């Protein structure tokens, strides 16, 4: 390590004894008040930017600016020191601008989409990893040359990462305690007729300002006593280290059991195997780091704990391999989606950490942590750069997914009625909507009709039977879309638009012909080759049509599954049945 301290130790002076862990950090008594004030202002601005009626359209620039304010304030409060405070301000403003750009792009990417999508979480991950890297470089760099990140002292970097986590968690806990206390005080004054505090709590602006004051003040207070926080951090690491043998033993038994049971049971479990394996792998990395500590002098002297840490470091690789196989099977069955692309990236990161752990244990065995630490530092830097790159609007995962899903549709790998039209409309961004517009002009009627149906939907729930009421616009649109695929009998009868909308919600007539049989003015039966027979009834009180579940029987296909309902003879006949009665009451189902 060739870097020199950023600021030489202060000369001896008759000042109060500092509670700071680093002697280069002079006491800053006003810090809690300064941090609380910054977060109060940030909370008020954030509220003003996001405050709008629930039914008002989203405004991308307001969401982006709100993200800029929130991220900049939190990053600055967590990472600032008096020395080189302008570095912290620049770092915070940079990441705030990056996250604002991410939110601005995500807000307009999907129709009715939320700005809090996968790119946003990727950006948050980049911020979380970048903050301790910045803090360490600020402490030891002789100047602003940041391209030598891999040469930073691991002990200080590791300590910053854990301290940030402890202080951040404690700050959030203090916010909760603060709200509880203010609520109790408000109720106490309510008993004597003073409603001021209760009225303030009802205002969202006050809530955001109170949260900002509590978080900023608590973080500032803890930073001024980070010698105490360091002790708390070590306590947390000791507690977590105790869990390492438990997880190590469980992983050994699990992996050995797979040799006998095989992997098929994992695929049949009905749960996301890849997600579970990645979660366990992340927990294994966390516990292994709790055992090995900040450096050789900080590693646990307990042999059982050190052996458990080695097992955990090695176990990450097989867990990542299982996750990779699971993800590959899923993609082979259902194709690419943005979520699966993110999943593959997460698997790649887990594989990198698994290979690093295996290499370190194979090379150094008992002292594997000496080789693992520099590898983890490089992996952290790479993870930060990767997460930041993926969060930016550089790669369009929606375009990749759209191209793959259309190829599966063209090849016949997925049938038209099983195709995920909702994903194309609401999950794949502009590329998905453009593909739907092209499919709507397809000469194949079933594809064109389904594409038009997906394009016209106001939200993804309109593409499923949600059970909600039907407005006149939806009913008229449904009647127009599927009228030519619903044969109405008797021929002199007509269906209300509401019934067409109910039929459309069932989805049975989007790709196949159906028959709607008007049994009475207030009752209609639907005959479909897809969903069997169902009933709709008119409610005279509300004036609405709805599914008549009382008379609908379990779906049964029409007698001839190959019948052409466009021309087949469809009629209603009385059927005589025999059934047992006991004391005049029916017993069992009809048997003939």
TrEMBL record:
It comes from the Bacteria. Keywords: Membrane, Transmembrane, Transmembrane helix. The chain crosses the membrane at residues 30-49, 61-80, 87-106, 118-135, 161-185, 205-223, 235-259, 271-292, 304-329, 341-361, 381-400. The keyword Flavoprotein does not apply. This is DUF4153 domain-containing protein. It comes from Sphingopyxis panaciterrulae.
């Amino acid at each position: 390590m060739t870097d020199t301290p950023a600021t030489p130790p202060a000369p001896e002076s008759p000042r109060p004894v500092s509670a700071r862990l680093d002697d280069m950090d002079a006491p800053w008594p006003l810090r809690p008040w300064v941090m609380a004030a910054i977060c109060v202002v940030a909370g008020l601005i954030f509220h003003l930017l996001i405050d709008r009626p629930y039914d008002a359209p989203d405004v991308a620039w307001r969401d982006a600016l709100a993200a800029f304010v929130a991220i900049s304030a939190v990053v600055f409060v967590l990472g600032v020191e008096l020395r080189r405070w302008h570095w912290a301000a620049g770092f915070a403003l940079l990441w705030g601008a990056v996250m604002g750009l991410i939110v601005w792009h995500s807000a307009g990417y999907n129709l009715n989409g939320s700005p809090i999508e996968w790119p946003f979480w990727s950006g948050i991950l980049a911020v979380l990893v970048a903050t301790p890297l910045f803090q360490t470089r600020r402490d030891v760099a002789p100047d602003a040359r940041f391209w030598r990140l891999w040469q930073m002292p691991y002990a200080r970097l590791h300590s910053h990462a854990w301290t940030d986590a402890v202080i951040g968690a404690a700050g959030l806990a203090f916010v909760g305690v603060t709200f509880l206390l203010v609520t109790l005080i408000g109720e106490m004054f309510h008993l004597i007729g003073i409603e001021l505090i209760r009225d303030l709590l009802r205002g969202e602006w006050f809530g955001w300002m109170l949260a900002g004051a509590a978080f900023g003040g608590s973080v500032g207070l803890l930073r001024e006593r980070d010698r105490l926080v360091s002790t708390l951090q070590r306590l947390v690491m000791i507690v977590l280290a105790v869990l390492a043998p438990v997880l190590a033993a469980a992983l050994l038994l699990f992996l050995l059991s797979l040799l006998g049971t095989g992997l098929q049971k994992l695929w049949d479990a009905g749960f996301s195997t890849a997600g579970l394996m990645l979660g366990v792998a992340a927990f294994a990395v966390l516990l292994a780091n709790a055992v090995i500590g900040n450096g050789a002098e900080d590693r646990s002297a307990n042999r059982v704990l050190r052996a458990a840490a080695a097992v955990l470091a090695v176990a990450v690789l097989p867990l990542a391999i299982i996750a990779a196989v699971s993800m590959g099977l899923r993609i082979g069955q259902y194709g690419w989606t943005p979520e699966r692309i993110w999943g593959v990236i997460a698997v790649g990161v887990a594989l990198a950490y698994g290979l690093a752990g295996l290499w370190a244990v194979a090379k150094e065995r008992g002292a594997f942590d000496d080789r693992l630490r520099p590898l983890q530092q490089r992996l952290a830097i790479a993870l930060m750069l990767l997460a930041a790159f993926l969060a930016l609007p550089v790669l369009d995962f929606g375009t990749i997914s759209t191209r793959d899903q259309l190829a599966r549709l063209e090849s016949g790998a997925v049938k038209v009625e099983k195709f995920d039209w909702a994903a194309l409309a609401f999950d794949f961004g502009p590329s998905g909507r453009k593909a739907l517009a092209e499919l709507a002009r397809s000469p194949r009627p079933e594809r064109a009709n389904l594409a038009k149906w997906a394009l016209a939907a106001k939200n993804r729930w309109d593409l499923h039977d949600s059970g909600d009421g039907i407005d006149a616009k939806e009913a008229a649109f449904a009647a127009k879309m599927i009228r030519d695929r619903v044969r109405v009998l008797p021929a002199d009868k007509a269906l209300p638009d509401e019934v067409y909308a109910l039929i459309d919600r069932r989805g049975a007539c989007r790709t196949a012909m159906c028959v709607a049989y008007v049994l009475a003015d207030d009752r209609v039966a639907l005959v479909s080759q897809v969903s069997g027979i169902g009933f709709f009834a008119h409610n005279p009180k509300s004036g609405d049509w709805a599914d008549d579940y009382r008379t609908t029987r379990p779906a049964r296909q029409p007698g001839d599954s190959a019948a052409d309902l466009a021309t087949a003879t469809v009629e209603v006949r009385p059927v005589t049945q025999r059934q047992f009665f006991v004391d005049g009451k029916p017993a069992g189902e009809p048997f003939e």
